[in-house]
Every structure is written in C-alpha cells, then in structure tokens.
Amino acid sequence: MRVFLAWACLGLFLAGPFNSISNADDSAKRRPHPGNREAREQRQERREEHRQSRERASEDRAVRRQPTPERQERREEREPMRPHPGNREAREQRQERREDREPVRPHQGNREAREQRQERHQEIRHSEHRESRRHMESARERERAVRRDRQNSTVVDHHVTIYRHGHRNRFDERTRYYREVYKHQSHRHRYEPYFRHGFRGGYYFPVRPCRIEVYFGYPLVMWLFADQIDYVYYRNWYGYDYDRYRVDPFPHRRVYYPTMALRNMAIEVSAYPTYKQSLFRAAMINLTQALASQIANAQGRSFTLSENDIVINYQESLRGEAIVVEGFVDRDNIHVAFKALLDLNNPDQTLVYVPLNSFPTDADLFGLRMINQRIQSLGGDPMQYRNLEYEEGFDF
Q1: CA gap 289, 295 in Å, rounded
Q2: Of 279, 291, 260, 298, which is closest to residue 348 (Cα–Cα)?
Q3: What H or E segment, with its residue span, contains residue 267?
Q4: Domain segments of the chain: what residues?
Q5: N or C: which terminus of the chain carries fewer CB neighbours within 10 A?
Q6: CA distance 307 to 167
Q7: Cα–Cα distance between 79 and 56 in angstroms, integer?
Q8: What is the pTM of this model?
Q9: pLDDT computed for residue 6 by the predictor
C-alpha cells in the first residue's frame, strides 16, 4: 500500500510542469475573443483610422470647392442672375404681384375653386347627414309608438308573413344573381367616360341587400312592398292628416330590389310631414314609369318591369327638397344604369336620366345636365358623392 501511494505522488509531481507548459502554449496561440480587451482595442484603432480618413476626404472636398481668384473674378463680372422660380426671393416676388392684383373670382376649373366647392359641399353634406340621422331616429320612435298597439302590430306581422311566404324566394334568387355579377370589379367603371360629367351609374356603388320585411312598420316601406294597403294602420300613423292625404296602392309593388339605400330613404321620408310623404309617393311613381318608358324607347319594344328589377344603391337628400338616387335596371339582356332627382315640391318635375351610348354626346348629356343644374340650385354638388360607410350591410 505504501508503495502504491509513493508511485502516485511521484506521477502527480512529474505531470504538473508539463501541463502548465502546454496551457501556456495554447493561450499564446488562441485568438482573442471579440469581447475581450485586445479585440476592443483593435476595433477602436480601426474606427479611429476610418474617422481620420473621412476628415481628410472632407478637407479635400472643401479645398476643391473654394473658388479660385480667376473664377471669383468671372462671377463678379457676370450680370445679376434672375432668381430661380423655386427659391425664396422668387416666391416673395410672386406673392407681391398677387397682392397688387385686384381680387378675381377663382376660375371654375382651378384648384382654389375646387377646394371651395368641396368645403361648401362637405358642410352641406355633414349637415344633411345629421339631419337624415335625426329624421331616421324620429321615424324609429314613431314606429315603436305605433307598434305598441296590438292591432297595429298584428297588421304589420300579417304583411310580413305574406311577404316571407310569397316573395322571399324571388329576393333570394336575385341576391344570388347579383352576388355572382359583383364578383367582378370591371362593372364599376362601365360608365367611366361619364364620370367627369357627374354620373357614376348604379354599377359603381356597392349593392347592399337587406331583409326589407323587418321594416314593414314604416309606412313607406310597407307601401313599396306590401300586397295590400291597410288603411287602419296608415290612419293610426298619420292621424287626422290621413283624410287629407290618403294613401293609394303603389302600382309597381316590389319592382325595387330591397337595398340599404332604399330602406334608409324610405325610413327617413317616413319622418317627413304628411304632405311631403304624399309628394314622395307621387315622385316614386313618376320615376318608375319614366324608367320603364326610357328603357322601352332605347330597346325599341315594349318593356314591363317585374319584381326586383330596379336597384337603388345610392341616395342623397338635398335639404328635404329633393332626393338624388342612382342605380341600375338588370334583367335578362338589359343592363342599364340611371340617375334621377325626386322632386318633393312638385313630383311632375322629377327627372330621370338613362345613358344611351357607351360614350357621352351633347344630345345624350342634355338630361344629365338638367339634373346637375337642379342639384346645384338646391345647394348640392353633382361631382361630389357622400360617404356610404354609415349604411350598414354587406357588399358582394
């Protein structure tokens, strides 16, 4: 045992110096780690060399940019240069000339005039939007008050049941058809040559269908889609005014496809005074008849509207004096857009425009110009369209 321990101690004593020598050799050969002191010093030296080289280059460029005496003399001999149109002196001179001029009315086509028209129309549009919201809220409160009566609620539910069982399938078929058509975005620019004349056409706007039977509690919605006129319900809605402004059946029931735009228009007008609602009904009849007549003349044959043929997907009220609508008529091989102005003071002055050609002509634009002039006279701008985001619904 003692012999074994002696040999072990001797081995450890002899191995120690050799291990220290090998470790020293390895540390000498090892490359310094990027994070230790030697690597930091090397990086600092390289940065300092790079900074000095940049300073020398900057000094060389500054020396080259300094004008020589000969070049300075040539500059002084030259005539004073006219300031560049984009510098400060030129801008100040132009501003002085503008101030010296007499104030002139901005040209219709320049930027200032466009901005003024846009600001004016934005103010009108926002006020009309608030007014439309106010009318719609008023109509909702009136509808809830009328529906509290059990008899009125029973009448509305009866018409809803008839519509769902007799006409809902037709609505679903047309919805599937329009969804298939609106997969393609090319139709939005079908009337692009007319855009600069204040006509987009119904194909430009999204089609947002709605379950119209849910809103049969509003008299104008029921008038457009219900099979019969329930005089009890209308009398309860209008009160004593009903004897003076009686409601006759709509001769073109359900020819309009139920959209959010049509629904909002009918709900808003339901809050108007009774005589205004009577004028609106007459204007809608004139609009429908004029559309059918113009399409028949363009086709050269008789034309009769059927259910869900007319789509109104844009509407804008002009201070309660008129309503601008745009949409399209789509059935079989007939695909035409239209723009109309419903006059709520004189329904006989309701105007309808249907483009006849792919490109506008002076004769073709006559009806459109008449509508645009009426819109301008009522404080609107035919070249500006309101935002459609607030109309709830879904797009195809």
Answers
A1: 10
A2: 279
A3: helix 260-269
A4: 120-377
A5: N
A6: 9
A7: 36
A8: 0.66
A9: 64
